[in-house]
Amino acid sequence: MNAGLLGKVNLPPIPGAAQLPDSLAGRRTDVLCHAFIIGLAFALYLVHTLSWARKVAKMPLHRRIAFALLASIALLASGCGGGSTSGGSTPTPTPTPTPSTANEWTWMGGRNTIAVKFGGQSGIYGTLGVASASNVPGGREYAVSWTDSNGNFWLFGGMGYDSVGTLGFGLNDLWEFNPTTKMWTWVSGSNTVPGANGSQPGVYGTQGVPATTNVPGGRFGAVSWIDSNGNFWLFGGNGQDAPNGFLNDLWEFSPTTKMWTWMSGSNTGSTSEGNGVYGTQGVAASSNVPGAREAAASWSDSSGNLWLFGGSALNDLWEFSPTTKMWTWVSGSSSVNGVPDCLPGVYGTLGVAAATNVPAGRGGTQTNSSSWTDSSGSLWLFGGSGCSGAFNDLWKFSPTTKMWTWMGGSSTGNASGVYGTLGVASASNIPGGRANAVSWIDSSGNLWLFGGGGQFNDLWEFMPTAKTWTWMSGSNTGNASGVYGTLSTASASNVPGGREGSVSWTDGNGNLWLFGGMGYESTGTVGYLNDLWRYQP
Q: Buried (b) or exposed (e) across 428-441, using 16+ Cβ within 10 A?
């Protein structure tokens, strides 16, 4: 047979006809090809019946039928009957894409209502060490959090409600949440507080020695880190250990052994803030220790060292080495005369690092800043409150050069936000002054900020490369109620209510998670929240 007949049939366009989309053009080709096959079969029939084709007509009937079938199969195999441009196969239907949930919130757990103003949900602890779908921490604010090497989320302490509905000023319960199973596990600490506004005392044991009975005392306003070995660290806060008050104790927790170790600082607390042992600036020493404080900011650097800034209106910066177990006073003032009077900042020139630059003292009673560590290992600080009000200044610190750079925002307090257009980055955008917001860093190295003082529920993204803020979600005014939608279902209309003092995590897929805080639930009632949210950037 003719080789050209077996090749792909390329039908010419119909003169004067409008060009069709690929999907419809393929169907037109399909119809014409089948018409051609039918015509060929009919021609063969004529070959059999017409007198001028006696030779062919003398062929047995079964051979003529076979000839027609082979011709048809050849045409079909060569592309006739298919709309594909890559051969003769029928194109695979394109599946309907799954709707994107990017830039949407999902309510993942906890309650969406509070019974009374300034009330809160009690915790459901279950059995110590046993995960359960019914377990959930009680409503709380000013807790601390970690994410372990397996991607599980951890939560400790804060001010909130225990298992019997008693409000404690210092919880010391430790929880683990598995983002895969969506279940909480009560890991250690107490499920009750000793009376209204009470706080569980700590069990310190022997300094430097882990023990199953060790546990930090109840507290709020502490700070946390993770070292390069995956161990959790906890420092200070406001608690009720003997005699009472402000803490500067440092603890290490091993997620593997599930044991706490008291590493440094006092086991008796302090009735006043400050009073650290600074030593020589820039020189590590085993006797150095930051003074007692609450609402500080913290970071872990790329080398696994722990960093601490301010709190209780201080502006001192400290570095702790988990290897040498020693503190180093790095920058800021060693004076405690700034308490309760704020220590002033030295802003220098916007965008220019200098050895003399330092943020103003900030952090005190529930007035902490927000912090991030970027992909280059730089430490970032935003906001917090001081004597001049709520800050919206943005700072970057280089652990290599040991210098601060003022990167944006106002050098005075109580600046209003510039929101611009939702979802659109701009060099003029900036969140308003606030304390007690929460922060994340995503898989692309961008910094995220949510809520904070004033009961905001606005979500912001900051791109360190472009140095621009983008208002991504939430209201540009405070005190907004939450829109919860359906549990575990993302929606563009979902948004957590305005709040402060929440905790945050980032999962292995780059999603941002938020838990609790003091704020507004679905009906507009304010109180201690225990709702869990996920946001997909």
A: ebbbbbbbbbbbbb
Ordered by where they begin, the domains of the chain are 3-77 (no CATH), 101-121+436-537 (no CATH), 143-271 (2.120.10.80), 275-418 (2.120.10.80)
pLDDT at 278 over 90: yes
Indicate whether 27 pLDDT > 80.
Answer: no
Residue 495 CA: distances (Å) to CA of 140, 192, 449, 487: 19, 31, 14, 12
Residue where the block lists tokens 């201080």: 314
Contact between residue 455 and residue 463 where contact means Cβ atoms under 8 Å apart: no
Question: Using CA atoms, how far apart are residues 39 and 43, in angstroms rounded to an integer?
Answer: 6
> Considering only CA atoms, which of 489, 501, 511 is closest in space to residue 139?
501
**CA-derived radius of gyration, the chain:** 33
30-63: burial string, b at 16+ Cβ within 10 Å, e else: eeebeeebeebeeebeebeeeeeeeeeeebeeee
Helix (H) or strand (E) holding 534: strand 526-536
Q: Where are the extended beta strands (E) located within 181-270?
A: 183-188, 219-220, 223-226, 232-239, 245-254, 259-264
353: exposed, middle or buried (Cβ count in 10 Å: 0-12, 13-18, 19+): middle
DSSP 5: H
Please give the helix or strand (H or E) that residue 217 lies within, else none: none
For 57, list phi and psi in degrees, rounded to 5: -65, -25
pTM of whole model > 0.85? no
